[in-house]
Structures are given as C-alpha cells and as structure tokens.
Design brief:
The structure is a homodimer of 165-residue chains. Chain A is 64% helix and 7% strand. Chain A is mainly alpha-helical and 165 residues long. The first copy, chain A, binds a DNA duplex (30 and 30 nucleotides) through helix 4.
DNA sequence: TGACGTACATAGGGGGACTATATATATTGG
DNA sequence: CCAATATATATAGTCCCCCTATGTACGTCA
C-alpha cells in the first residue's frame, strides 16, 4: 500500500516476489503486448471517419457535459486542438455547444442523440473487432483475460490520477 | 465492475461455454480497457518526436530487412505512406535503404545502429511508463496481468493472420 | 474602474495518411 | 526478341490532426 513514486521496496507479506526483476519483465512484456494490440486494432476498432481523439472525446462526454478545457485534459490534447475538434464534431452533429448561464465564457459541450449513436457504433465495432481476435483463443486464455481486466483498468486509473495531480 | 462469474474456478476441464454471453461481455470490457490504455499511454509511451507509425516500422525491422511494401503491410499503412515514412527515417539516420541485387526495383530497408538505439529508447520509455502504472497495483493484479500476457499476444497473432490471408 | 486571470477562439505551420498517378524494372505471350 | 502486362516504389495533391503563439471576451479582485 505504498504510494511513493517508483518505489521498488519489498512487498511484505506477499507470497510472490513482485519486485524489480519480475516487475520489470512484466512491464516489458505487457508493454510489448499493449503496443502491438494498439497498433493492430486501431484501424479495426475505429469506424472509418472517426479519429481516435474524436472517439476519446465522445467517450469522455458519456458521463455528462464538459467544458472545452476539461475535455482537452481528459483526452490529453491542447485546448486549441479540443476547440477545433469540438467545432468539427458540432458541424457533424455529434455534440452541442451550450452556453453556461452563470459564466458566459464557458461552453458546455454535450452529446446529441447522433453522438450517442456514434458511441454505440464505436463500441459495437470495438467489440466486434475484439471478438474476432478472441475467436481462436482457448478457454484458458479467455479466462486469463477476464481475470486481468480489473488490473488493466487499474493501470489507467493510476495514470489519470498522476495526470490530475 | 465485478466480473465474478468469469473467474477461474469453473474451468477445470469443463466445457464452460465461452459462447455468446460471457464472450461478448469479455470482448466488451476488454475492448474498453484496451482503448483506454491506448489513449492514456500513447503519449507516455512514445518519446517526443517519434510517431506510432515510426515506432511500429522500427519494431517491424527488428527481425531483419524488409521491402517497403512488406513494411506497409506489417504496419497497416498504404505503400505511399510507408515510402514517405522510410525516406523520413532515412533522413533521420534510423534506417538505410539498400538496393536488392537481384531485383533493382525493390529497396531493402534495414536498421542502422542509430535505429537500434531508438528502439531501445522506445522500449525503455514504454517499460518505464508501464512500471509507473503498475506501481499501485496489488500483487494479485500483477499476477493476473502476467497470466494474461500469452492471451494478449494471441489476439494480435490472430489479427495478423487474418490480415495476411 | 482598471489590472489581472480565465475560457475559449483564431492564426499559422508541420506532419501523417490517404487516393490517384507516374516511373522504373521484371515477366510473359506471341 | 519485343510489346504488353505486372510489380515495386516514388511523386503529386489533399485533408485532417496537433502543436505553439496570440487574440478576444468575460469574470474577479483591489
């Protein structure tokens, strides 16, 4: 339960020795696998005409309206990039730009029905592409993947906290 | 998001149906996790000044020289894109363009020492970024990730076969 | 009220990726 | 053997994404 950065000290009480050598090797192999997956699945996952950043922005809007700067942080692009992106997606009819009543500088970006449908298509394509990839895997591998999902989510949660702080 | 029903205990020699419901759910959640990972780690993993396509091309060259068309297929870009990419990387000193003796149309793209160093830096940055992400995970999650690595590789292997055939 | 800070937009430029097409080199049928 | 075709790569032209630097409108505070 230590939160120190890059702390490689001993994990007391654990039956496995997950310190530097194994940890390093895990990071190495996992990194290779994730990069390979990203590169190979990028085109299969994204429907034509939707960029990765557009997809990320739409997904960031699922939980409710966001201002432009917040979206830029969430998707990890600069604010001008997000401004242009939002304007483009407004032109496509995927989002609406409402003005906040209290502060007239901010624009509240929110999904339209069309945008929600784009998200559904996006997720459907993603699932379809991955189902094809899972097709040849034995049940043991599928179980291993299922068991690893919380850990995979945990990696990104740490990342978002690190970026936010 | 608990995935209790997908755990390992049901799989000893059982014809557990990894058919529609569980399979679909696995693809869905795994897809979400992978997309999230891709988006969040893209900037952390790639050293500044190296694009994802450049990285993929370098990695594809690790196993030996390749012709331009082969690289384009491996990295999943068009041939003109790969031509420009290779010329750019030649200008950077990362690759060399040798002419095949037998067929003077083809160029054999191969890594230079500099290119090999770029790959090492790339992998080091990747591992470093991931190590930071693994930092807060409990040993159980680390074990789950380690166990899932062959399966993760299996997904992409299927993809590459599907593309090739 | 005027100076400063914040939220977003605009301007300009570089790079990546595509389609269509050109060029140079094999390969093949008559 | 030569013209037609096929193959490997390069060039041209365009669009989108993303960046930095800067501008504009609005809020905040002394």
């Amino acid at each position: 339960m230590n939160h120190g950065p890059m702390d490689l000290r001993r994990l007391d009480g654990q039956p496995l020795n997950w310190q530097s050598p194994e940890r390093l090797r895990l990071a190495d192999e996992l990194g290779a696998a994730i990069v390979e997956l990203s590169m190979r699945l990028r085109r299969a996952i994204l429907p034509p005409g939707i960029s990765l950043t557009q997809a990320g922005t739409l997904l960031a809007l699922r939980d409710g309206p966001q201002r432009v700067t917040g979206l830029a942080d969430a998707v990890q692009v600069t604010q001008p990039t997000m401004s242009a992106l939002v304007m483009g997606m407004e032109r496509l009819g995927w989002v609406r730009r409402d003005t906040d009543g209290a502060d007239r500088r901010v624009v509240a970006v929110c999904l339209t029905r069309t945008g929600e449908k784009v998200i559904r298509d996006l997720e459907a394509a993603r699932t379809r592409a991955l189902l094809a990839g899972l097709d040849t895997l034995p049940a043991l591998d599928l179980a291993a993947l299922a068991a690893a999902i919380p850990a995979l989510r945990g990696i990104t949660q740490h990342e978002s906290k690190a970026v936010a702080s």
